[in-house]
Design a protein that fits this description.
Helix content: 10-25%
Shape: globular
Number of strands: 14
Strand content: over 45%
Largest sheet: 7 strands, mixed
Radius of gyration: 22 Å
Distance between the termini: 83 Å
Length: about 220
């Protein structure tokens, strides 16, 4: 009987330890959805990016619950025109509502399902990367930029230039030429030609259908 009680006590202790370990609160990856690498679905969806012919402003807005849960969604679209070669892109962006950490931004040099990306968020952070299919490779990790405006309903300007002689890309925010970010695209596939466009990361923490993800883009 004592042995039986001892065994039962040991089993009870093991179960308690297991429940304690598995029940410990952790911050899951789901809470850090900032870029395509974090989301489970990356797809082109031009239907959500709607251009106002009178102003040229492209509006993105959705509260569709099919984008809720999981590990987030990344949606992108591209213009019809091709820059050949790519020289310059200047876009004004404004996030009106949606998760404050999730990135949104521009694509350029897009062709055959590969492109370069610059994302920003409402926390004054930016990232530069290459998207090839569902593979996102960072060229510049998430970094704080003093010249980005934080918060919602703030207009931020992303400006990209390419110098074919040096093969350098230069990035500035809000016209601040004193804080130029230089980056390169040294590995195939190269992105010195292609289409421009826009990209939005939807976080699983976005509160659909109550609060939509709403962003505007305007090519200058």
């Amino acid at each position: 009987m004592k042995n039986t009680k001892l065994i039962m006590a040991e089993i009870s202790l093991l179960v308690t330890i297991f429940l304690f370990l598995t029940g410990c609160p952790k911050t899951p990856e789901i809470y850090v959805v900032k870029e395509p690498l974090d989301s489970s679905v990356i797809e082109e969806n031009s239907e959500i990016f709607i251009e106002d012919p009178a102003t040229g402003i492209i509006g993105f807005e959705t509260n569709d619950t099919k984008y809720s849960g999981g590990y987030g969604y990344t949606l992108w679209t591209e213009d019809d025109g091709i820059q050949d070669p790519f020289i310059h892109l200047n876009v004004t962006l404004k996030k009106i509502s949606g998760n404050d950490v999730a990135g949104y931004g521009i694509i350029f040099g897009s062709y055959e399902d590969t492109m370069l990306i610059v994302l920003i968020n409402t926390k004054k952070e930016f990232v530069i990367g290459e998207l090839e299919g569902n593979l996102f490779t960072e060229l510049q990790a998430w970094t704080e930029a003093a010249n980005l405006k934080p918060g919602y309903n703030q207009s931020n300007i992303i400006d990209i230039n390419y110098d074919p002689s040096s093969e350098d890309f230069s990035l500035t925010f809000n016209g601040d030429e004193t804080a130029v970010v230089i980056f390169r695209d040294d590995e195939e596939p190269f992105h010195t030609t292609g289409k421009d466009g826009y990209i939005v990361v939807i976080s699983p923490l976005d509160n659909f259908p109550g609060i939509p993800v709403s962003i505007t883009f305007k090519k200058n």
